[in-house]
Amino acid sequence: MRALKYASEYEVIFSLMNNNPEHMKMDWEIREALDGYLRPFLKEASVVSNLTINSQVIG
């Protein structure tokens, strides 16, 4: 595993890719996943850096 160089700001982007949007409607509950799995890490990391979290659906 490689360590990241320090930065005062990070942008984290979560992408859901749908290769068949005409036939498959995607519903992504990313907020619940972030709260359930990543919130503790993000809380600790935000002490030393400003984090911006975004999500997108591509398709």
From TrEMBL:
<dbReference type="GO" id="GO:0042765">
    <property type="term" value="C:GPI-anchor transamidase complex"/>
</dbReference>
<keyword id="KW-0337">GPI-anchor biosynthesis</keyword>
<dbReference type="GO" id="GO:0006506">
    <property type="term" value="P:GPI anchor biosynthetic process"/>
</dbReference>
<dbReference type="InterPro" id="IPR019540">
    <property type="entry name" value="PtdIno-glycan_biosynth_class_S"/>
</dbReference>
<protein>
    <submittedName>
        <fullName>Uncharacterized protein</fullName>
    </submittedName>
</protein>
<dbReference type="Pfam" id="PF10510">
    <property type="entry name" value="PIG-S"/>
</dbReference>
<comment type="similarity">
    <text>Belongs to the PIGS family.</text>
</comment>
<keyword id="KW-0812">Transmembrane</keyword>
<keyword id="KW-0472">Membrane</keyword>
<keyword id="KW-0325">Glycoprotein</keyword>
<dbReference type="GO" id="GO:0016255">
    <property type="term" value="P:attachment of GPI anchor to protein"/>
</dbReference>
<keyword id="KW-1133">Transmembrane helix</keyword>
<comment type="pathway">
    <text>Glycolipid biosynthesis; glycosylphosphatidylinositol-anchor biosynthesis.</text>
</comment>
<keyword id="KW-0256">Endoplasmic reticulum</keyword>
